[in-house]
Amino acid sequence: MYRFVDDRHRSVFLVTDEGILLTDPLNTQAATWLKAELKKRFGVPIKYVVYSHNHSDHIYGAQVFDDPNTVFIAHELAAQDIRITKANTVIPDMTFKEKMAISLGGHKVELRYHGPNDGRGSISMLFKPEKLLFVVDWIVIGRMPWQKLWSYDIQGMINSTQQVLELDFDTFVGGHADIGNKSDVVRYLNYLQDLYNAVITGIHKGQSVDEIKQTIKLTNYSDLKQFKQWLPLNVEGVYERLMEESGMGWRPDIK
Q1: Is residue 237 classed exposed, middle or buried when 0-12, 13-18 and 19+ CB atoms within 10 A define those classes?
Q2: Which residues of the chain fall short of a pLDDT of 70?
Q3: Which pLDDT belongs to residue 3?
Q4: Please, what is the end-to-end C-alpha distance for the chain in angstroms?
Q5: Smallest Cα–Cα separation from 175: which of 2, 30, 4?
Q6: SS3 of 16, please?
Q7: Phi, psi torsion values for 39, nearest 5 degrees
Q8: What would the pLDDT profile of 201-227 be if each residue is shown by its tens digit?
Q9: What is the pLDDT of residue 255?
């Protein structure tokens, strides 16, 4: 197992005697560099490219690996979005609805859809026997969730993270930020839940978003990167989704 880093983006790939399974190619420049390195270092064919979800900053550059002998895989919702929006990347050859398993060179990769969380068709990838879990965007370790949580389904992220914690993994790799373990994922979930509950409490008190931003401290998580800068933005993002997506903005029991 290897992690591939380009600026603030990360992906992983599995190398076996039978070939390579890649995850997100990231972008054309990064993918071009990676393809040359894979050929130089390993000299085995690229069998699979698996998309984590539909967002262009993770799945562009796939044309670099486009080959009749390489199978591109994504969740059906990600593939649908790629086709409908005419995304400039390779359309997946294979899709799945809930779960899919790939076997390669004595290794197994389990792909799972956990419902809405970030983007469309965002999945988890569990590598066996390595016990390594790869998730992009909706779990980050050692850093705050991205600014105003654009494109995030907050409750969906909580639900999805609770589900992956039931899986058997020791190492966590995210599409951004640090490598961690299951305890780190638990702490991330605790942050999301504490943030969500604190904003809900503020809304029920009749506080404005600015008042809620001043009230919520969550100092137990102050060691996370970007904490000071992004906590107010995280609060604002949760507030907007609760008021709009959850309909709290027009509930008669809330001032």
Answers
A1: buried
A2: none
A3: 98
A4: 53
A5: 4
A6: strand
A7: -65, -45
A8: 999 999 999 999 999 999 999 999 999
A9: 79
Write the burial class of residue 220 (CB in 10 Å: 0-12 exposed, 13-18 middle, 19+ buried): exposed
Q: Which residue matches tokens 């197992």?
A: 1
- Rounded-to-integer distance, Cα 72 and Cα 67, Å: 10
Q: HSE (CB half, 13 Å, CA atoms) of 148? A: 9
pLDDT score for 19:
98
Q: What are 48's strand-pairing partners?
A: 21, 71
One DSSP character per residue, 52-112 reads SSS-HHHHTTGGGG--TT-EEEEEHHHHHHHHHTT-SSPPPSEEESSEEEEEETTEEEEEE
Alpha-carbon span 215 to 212, nearest angstrom: 5
Q: Which pTM does this prediction carry?
A: 0.96
For residue 6, give the 3-state DSSP assignment. Answer: strand
Task: Work out the number of other CB atoms within 10 angstroms of the CB of residue 77.
Answer: 19
Instruction: Give which of 233, 232, 255 is closest to 243, Cα–Cα.
Output: 255
Per DSSP, the three-state class of 150 is coil
d(CA 3, CA 77): 26
Preceding peptide of 25 cis, ω within 30°:
no
Give the model's pLDDT for residue 223: 97
CA distance 156 to 122: 11
State the Cα–Cα distance between residues 255 and 248, nearest whole angstrom.
Answer: 10
